[in-house]
Amino acid sequence: PRDAGACVTAVDDTGTEGAKEKGASSNGAYAGGTAHIDGRLVPLAEARIPILDWGFLRSDATYDVVHVWKGAFFRLEDHLDRFERNMAALRLDPGLTRPRIRDILMECVARSGLRDAYVEMICTRGQPPVGSRDPRKCQNRFYAFTAPFVFVADENQRARGLHMRVSERPRIPPESVNPTVKNYHWMDLTAGLFEALDKGAESVVLTDGRGHVTEGPGFNVFIVTDGRVATPDVGVLDGITRRTVIELCGLEGIPCQARAVAVTELKAADEVFITSTAGGAMPVTRIDGAPVGEGTPGPITQRLSSLYWSKQESGWLATKVEYGDG
Ligand code: PLP
User: What pLDDT digit, counting tens, does each position of 46-84 carry?
Assistant: First the structure.
């Protein structure tokens, strides 16, 4: 539901008229994506942020990513809940109400005309007054953008399963940076990804440094052993897709537990898959060069993945985008 009066004023600063009239298939400069900056909508490629924003200089920010599939947001309210919780945890307040944020996201997607989209909302610390380094004095900022939907794994990788490496580099300890507060502290993940790519793998999973699995760049990890599903419970983001898979297991009567998962269990599992807003549940079929189970996407992974998409397409936890083009 849209709250009356909460609608953001979208100003087109390119002079490009007719995005609405042209409909979904050709939204001009906005078709490649739309960004919301300082109360204005701009084509994504033209979006700019101030260089002195601590979000950029210090990774002092939180963000969330929700997707739109076939013209509807999936679990929009859950993503907004997480975003609000994480802003509060970091003492960030961009001065926008939840209905306003919801409206901005809607407006970004509607303007782009994208039916399958990746939608990111960001709150940064902003800038302190000149001469100050006091985070309490910063004026926090809100940004949002939408881009064409993107998968963590490409089509071929999703069909045959990802080739994964377990990095020896531990994830930043949760006592230092809380991983449940979605953040841009990705140097460990990116360095791990470089190592994995250099060694011929396609993606990476980091550990806690004590022999347990954590997560990878943009995804949670699941194992299936003897028909039982498990996913790490600490040191990871409480992914919305992870939650969805746990719920789907409940609906399907598949035992599923959030608990510590040892690297040895990961390597001995019958099936391994990753979960992300950018792709749902996606199979992993090789770890450190060795096949997982039979070396092909497993039956439980495939069942959960197809349920994830089919339930969304039937309107489960969906919020329709009002495109205004019929
Ligand atoms: N873990 C990390 C570090 C992430 O960045 C993400 C998503 O970007 C995830 C897990 C998956 O979370 P979600 O299912 O909410 O997309």
Answer: 999 999 999 999 999 999 999 999 999 999 999 999 999
What is the Å distance from ligand 1's center to 122 Cα? 14
For 235-238, the CB contacts below 8 A with 24+ separation are 235/171, 235/173, 235/174, 235/179, 235/208, 236/179, 236/180, 237/179, 237/180, 237/182, 238/82, 238/180
Ligand 1, atom 13, residue with closest C-alpha: 239
Residue nearest to atom 1 of ligand 1 (CA): 219
C-alpha 152 – ligand 1 centre gap (Å): 10
Q: CA 28, 30, 34: angle at the middle one, nearest 5?
A: 175
Helix (H, G, I), strand (E, B) or coil at 67: strand
pTM summary value: 0.92
CA of 107 to the centre of ligand 1 (A): 24
Cβ pair 19, 30 in contact under 8 A: yes
CA of 219 relative to ligand 1 center, distance in Å: 4
Cα–Cα nearest to 309, from 276, 281, 285: 281
Determine the atom of ligand 1 nearest the C-alpha atom of 179: 3
Q: Beta-carbon neighbour count of residue 233 at 10 Å?
A: 13
